[in-house]
Amino acid sequence: MDAITLRWCAELFYGGAAGGGKSDFLLGDFLQDVSTYGKAWKGILFRRTYPELEELIARSKDIYPQTGAKWSEQKKLWIWPNGATLKMRYAERNDDVLRYQGHQYTWIGWDELTQWPTLFCYRYMRSRLRSPHPVPYKRIRSAANPGGPGHLEVKRYFVDPAPGGYNLLTDEQGIERMFIPARLKDNLILTINDPSYRQRLLALGSDTLVRALEAGDWSVIEGAFFDNWTDRRHVIRPFQVPDHWLRLRAMDWGFAVPFSVGWFAVVGDEYVARNMADDPVILPRGCLVRYREWYGLDEKYAGLRMTAEAVAKGIVEREKYTDYTRNMKLVKALQVSEFCASPLLL
C-alpha cells in the first residue's frame, strides 16, 4: 500500500472504494512508528459516533495484542511496553474536540472523515499535532469512502486539486497534504477471504452508489444533474490546444454567488488525451474541451461581488495569454480567487 510508506507527508487522505482496507491502514500507520519513538509516540484516533468507534476498537483488538500492546477498557487506550499510546475516541459534535485543548499528539487519525459535516474538528485538532520530543514525522492520517454529509468539503480539500492522487499539495501556511486513492484490490485479505464482496457492491442497484463504493469515484453525488460525470472520463491532463481548433467563450454571471467564465475548444479531429490517472482518453471530433476557467469565488465559496466592468476587464487580461504557466502567474498578479482548471471533456 503506497499510503503507509509516505510517513514524511504531514497530512494524508486515503479514500475511495469500500473494502480498500482504510481502517487497517490507519491502525497500521500508527503502529509502524511505535518502536521508533516509544513514549514520545502518542496518538489519537477518531470516529464520529461511539457505535462506529466500537467497530474500530474491535478491529484493533485483532491486530495490536500481537505487538505486545495492552488495552484499557476504562480509558479506551492502547499502551505498548515502551510507553507508546493510542487513544480511541469519538467526536459527534464540534464541541467534542474542544476538550482536547492543551493536549499534544504526534499522530492524529480520522476514520470515515466524510461522516463529519464539516472539517472543523479536523482543522481544530491539527493544532494539537505537536510534541516536546524530537519526532520528525508527526502526522495526520484520514480515510473515507465517497458520500456522507462531509463529502463535498473533503473532496474540495483533498481530491479536487489532484483528482488522480499522488500529488503533493502545499497550502498558504506551508502545510503539505496528499490524496491517495483507495482501491478494492489494495485489501488482499478481503479479496482473498471474501471474493464475492465486489459482486455484492455491484448489486447495490444505484449506479451512483456502485460508482462511489466499488470504483471509489469522488465525482458522483446522488441526485446530481450530471449524474453520469466521472473524473476518469471527463477530466484530462492539460495539453496544447491545436491552433486550428475552433474556440469560444461562455459565461454564467454571478455577483453574490460565484460567476464562471469558460474557454472552450471544439475538437477538429479525433485526439488522444490522457486523464489524471494517465490513461488514454479519446476525444471524438466535434466534442468540447473546456481548457480554461475563471471561477469567481472567495475562501467561503461565495461570489466576489465584482462589477460587470471588472469581470470584463479580467476576461480581456486573461485572453492576452495562451500559455497555461503564464496564465497562472497572471492569476497571482491579479490576486483574484480563481481556479484554472485542467481541460474538461464535455
Q: Give the mean pLDDT.
A: 82
Task: Give the N-terminus to C-terminus distance in angstroms.
Answer: 34 Å
Spell the H/E element sequence.
EHHEHEEEEHEHEEHHHHEEEEEHHE
Overall number of structural domains: 2
Q: List segments where confidence is low: pLDDT < 50 over at least 5 consecutive residues.
A: 323-346
Give the name of the CATH architecture of the largest domain. 3-Layer(aba) Sandwich
Let me know the number of strands.
15
Judged by helices, strands and strand pairing, the structural class is: alpha/beta
Q: In the CATH hierarchy, what is the superfamily of the largest domain?
A: P-loop containing nucleotide triphosphate hydrolases
Number of helices: 11
Beta-sheet strand percentage?
A: 15-25%
Strand order of the largest sheet: 3-4-5-2-6-7-1-9-8
Briefly note the CATH topology name of the largest domain: Rossmann fold
Radius of gyration computed on alpha carbons:
23 Å
What sort of overall outline do the alpha carbons produce when their principal axes are compared?
elongated
CATH class of the largest domain: Alpha Beta
Instruction: Report on the biggest sheet.
Output: 9 strands, mixed
Helicity range: 25-40%
